[in-house]
Amino acid sequence: FKKSVHAEQIDKETHLPLVNCETCHGPGSLAIDNIKEVNGKKQCDFESLINLKKLPAEAKNLICLKCHTKASTPNLAMWRGSAHDLAGVACSDCHKLHTSPLQKVEHAQQINLCLSCHKKIKVEISNLSKHPFNVRKIVCTDCHNPHGSMTSNLLKRESVRETCAYCHTEKGGPYTFEHADLMEDCSNCHVPHGSVNDNLLKVREPILCLRCHEGHHSFRSEALTPKNKLKFYNRCTDCHLSIHGTDTPSGSTTTLPKNQGRMLR
């Protein structure tokens, strides 16, 4: 406890606002007033004190929110009505109140903590294609605010696209020729946590592309002439390399008007 973030508040040398045991557990006088004698020894009535473990989640959180207000902890501004609040998650379910030296959950512990509830995500990140969770190069709070957000899925930024582009800046655009669906929402094509397909794709190519571009090529198309059609059954991105968008017109000089904006090599 002496090394915890709450112990720092009790230490007079820190000059921090006074927070002591009674702040959370109620006045110690209640335990002293009801001293019992057990086996010839006097014993305080600890049952008179507030035991957070016996309280429902909402009551536990009210005790924490007395000090951790929106003003002192801006990260909690959206807590009321958030997904975790409505699910009955208590602060103490994630935070070690008596032992942690930090207010925040340490990165080394964060992923296992989140996955203890989010079982579906645990399965997804076990796939071969995934973000580097296993080497701790990315943690859940890089993308999510567990205490609440204006967006769905507790994202820290205003949209899925903005969240992804924060790291994947080279994919974020803006481009002269944009792949509209990708610019709107990366999750139209990608699974953010893990996938059995390369590059976190929802399904493999070319099936993924054909979900939107149905009938995009016919056998009269140049792309599917006997010379080229076998290439099509590999990956669309073998030809359409700049799939997220490009600033340069695509195609050769002889086919420029025809292929302009098709995100070719």
Structure description:
This protein has three domains: 1-98, no CATH class; 105-202, no CATH class; 203-265, no CATH class. The protein is 28% helix and 5% strand. It has 13 helices and six strands.
**Structural class by secondary-structure content:** mainly alpha
| Alpha carbon gyration radius | 28 Å
Specify the helix fraction band. Answer: 25-40%
Any idea how many domains? 3
Distance between the termini: 60 Å
Average residue pLDDT: 81
Give the biggest beta sheet: 2 strands, antiparallel
Beta-strand portion reads: 5-15%
Which strand order spans the largest sheet, edge to edge or round the barrel?
A: 1-2
| Shape type | elongated
The protein's oligomeric status is single chain
Q: Count the strands?
A: 6
Can you describe this structure in just a few lines?
With 265 residues, the chain is mostly helical. Helix content is 28%, strand content 5%.
Essential attributes:
265 residues, two-stranded antiparallel ribbon, 13 helices, 28% helix, 5% strand
Q: What is the topological layout?
A:
Blueprint: H1 5-10, H2 21-25, H3 29-33, E1 36-38, E2 41-43, H4 57-67, H5 83-86, H6 91-94, H7 107-115, H8 119-124, E3 129-130, H9 160-165, E4 177-178, H10 180-184, E5 194-195, H11 207-210, H12 229-232, E6 245-246, H13 256-259
Antiparallel strand pairs: 1-2, 3-5, 4-6
